[in-house]
Design brief:
Family (chains A, B): Belongs to the pantothenate synthetase family.
InterPro entries (chains A, B): Cyt_trans-like, Pantoate_ligase, Pantoate_ligase_C, Rossmann-like_a/b/a_fold
Largest sheet of chain A: 6 strands, parallel
Subunit structure (chains A, B): Homodimer.
Keywords (chains A, B): ATP-binding, Cytoplasm, Ligase, Nucleotide-binding, Pantothenate biosynthesis
Function (chains A, B): Catalyzes the condensation of pantoate with beta-alanine in an ATP-dependent reaction via a pantoyl-adenylate intermediate.
Oligomer: homodimer
Number of helices of chain A: 10
Number of strands of chain A: 10
Shape of chain A: globular
Radius of gyration of chain A: 19 Å
């Protein structure tokens, strides 16, 4: 595995790979890798000749009161894990390498962002699509891999690729969970021991909601209330939202039908966690 | 030469060409081809394995009171000229092929647009960068060719490519002129016979301004005034603007130094014409 910090080096090596007719899989991350990321890398490894992983904590997608500075970083460990997962090229630029001067182009996402996390994080997805656009141009992937834990991000990036005709396939990969059901997240390290014991109930609450729907309940509000009740009873966290939306369009549904997402965000003392289930109803 | 109307067909053939390691030159146009466009195509022919020309009158870059509907079109003639110029693939989509639904992504150009034509055409360059981004993703060119007659467009597209790391080279090609100096333009057909006789003085006026600067005049205002005087005396047109800016940054200069652009737009009865000279001063 080679580690690259400079844009010019990356574009030069990517140019060679493309010229040789090799397929490229890209796994964009913010580092502090966990099994979720590594699952993306392994899938990319299976499906492409060359695997590029980027590690870049993108300042543009953090709000002024968010955790950009304190976002966990451990580059040495990441390097080892990426290599073990079969990554060929690890691209880890500094912010001034990605943004050497103010961008002449501002990108705004005008759909799929006014709910779930997007509602509470104005500008977040504008920052996401900007950095993802840059990474797509730099790495020129045939396939790009994103975890479905951030399902809204997958929905937005699908929209980006479709709207602007990027020549690549977006692959949303199933959320990786601990045995107890807790979704893997870089932010889990900020949970207290007690919170860690309670947090698996986030997923249990989503499953309780889904179970109700699968038993035939069509009223979205009842499914949401079931989920909220379970979260309140078992997780010891403050609920940020529970929403039930069509997927990937992310429009609210009253009567459950077709592919939907049941998603939640909850707050613990030092961490805000998100999780979701995507399922199909007749 | 093959003619393609559908996005899917284009991406499929472009995919084959890329896989075969061939280089691609793209010439984006709005059709009604003249020698300016054909010069771009010929240059692309010399420098690339495959030449793609697009013909697309992009509704997104026309304002509500502009000439989208009446913009001249002659596809049969264009087809013949493109083939003669060595184009391999002529991509001529309908608007609903390029914009099948409202875009989820809005792109805004936040520099280099608040003067010259950009000042009078709010949103124009937002529409330009959106369609150019889409065309770049569809045609995946190694090189893209634009005429320097619309120097502001070249400056904006250079900024687009730099800001978002597009993997391609933007090539600005010298303005093609009639023997009398009039810059070739699709809109020249709208000039009356008398206006056509006077219009070559637009270029003469720019040359008069440049001559003054080359004689040592450093005061931008005096050079602008010389140009205005010549325009007023000889062209019989209404002056929209005469500006002297740094190039490609397009910031106003008081004292002429370095690479600058002297640019003008004038209005005749049925056509607004633009022209410019880019030159270097010590």
């Amino acid at each position: 595995m080679i580690v690259i910090k400079k844009v010019k080096e990356l574009t030069s090596i990517v140019g060679e790979k493309k010229k040789a007719g090799l397929s490229i899989g890209l796994v964009p991350t913010m580092g502090y890798l966990h099994e979720g990321h590594l699952t993306l890398a392994k899938k990319a490894r299976e499906e492409n000749d060359v695997v590029i992983m980027s590690i870049f904590v993108n300042p543009l997608q953090f709000g002024p009161n968010e955790d950009f500075e304190s976002y966990p970083r451990d580059f040495e460990r990441d390097q080892k894990l990426a290599e073990e997962a079969g990554v060929d090229i690890l691209f880890a630029p500094e912010p001034n390498e990605m943004y050497p001067k103010p961008s002449m182009i501002v990108m705004n996402v005008v759909e799929r962002t006014d709910r779930l996390c997007g509602e509470k994080r104005p500008g977040h997805f504008d920052g996401v699509v900007t950095v993802v656009t840059k990474l797509f141009h730099l790495a020129q992937p045939n396939r790009a891999y994103f975890g479905l834990k951030d399902a809204q991000q997958v929905a937005v990036i699908n929209g980006l690729v479709e709207s602007l005709n990027f020549p690549l396939e977006v692959i949303g990969v199933e959320t990786v969970r601990e045995e107890n059901g807790l979704a893997k997240s870089s932010r889990n390290v900020y949970l207290t021991p007690t919170e860690r014991q309670l947090a698996p109930h986030i997923y249990q609450a989503l499953k309780a909601g889904r179970a109700l729907a699968e038993q035939g309940e069509k009223d979205a509000e009842k499914v949401i209330n079931e989920t909220i009740a379970h979260l309140n009873e078992h997780t010891g966290a403050e609920i940020d939202y529970v929403e039930l939306l069509s997927f990937p369009e992310l429009t609210p549904v009253q009567t459950i039908k077709g592919q939907v997402i049941l998603a939640t965000a909850v707050k613990y003392s030092n961490a805000r966690l998100i999780d979701n289930i995507i399922f199909e109803c007749e």
